[in-house]
Amino acid sequence: MNNNLVNVNQKNADVIIDLRYASKNNFTNQKLFKSSECFIHTTAFEYLCKAIDISKKLGFKIKIFDAYRPVYVQKALWDKLPDPNFIAPPDKGSPHSRGVAIDLTLTHDGEELDMGTDFDEFSRLSYHGNLEISEKAYKNRLLLLGIMTNSGWDFYRNEWWHYQLFDSIKFPIINDVF
After folding, report:
1. I need a surface site. Which of 29, 123, 145, 164 has the fewest CB within 10 A?
2. Where do the domains of the chain lie, and which CATH numbers do they carry?
3. Catalytic site residues?
């Protein structure tokens, strides 16, 4: 594969993969991905492995909701919710379409930690630093933030679940690996 993407499913990474856009369990209520394979840029995979190791040390496991996102999926999301606070316009390109972003949470004994909202909650409740969520959820978000930033990831302030490589714009858009 010449696009620098690796298939997380084939790497025996100790994570739970629940690609929401490969099922109807997402805000569009439609299956958008043609595949349930989880791809990510090789550099991002290195940082993901660091996050996996830190999570394990603390007794948690990472659950991945989204990673590489083909441009056709980005367009479908934008068509459903054309809000640049949460969805990157397809012509601009998302860090997901570059393979350098990941949406995730933490689990303990198979259960997702309370983060105050579900994945893809498109409101200010999903913002990092939002004080309207419970103390427990706030601490869980800080835990995830600490794990991810200590692993080399940058965060997106509007979505507690979204992390990306720094300078993600320098990576080329990958239209579709399938």
Report:
1. 29
2. 5-170 (3.30.1380.10)
3. 159
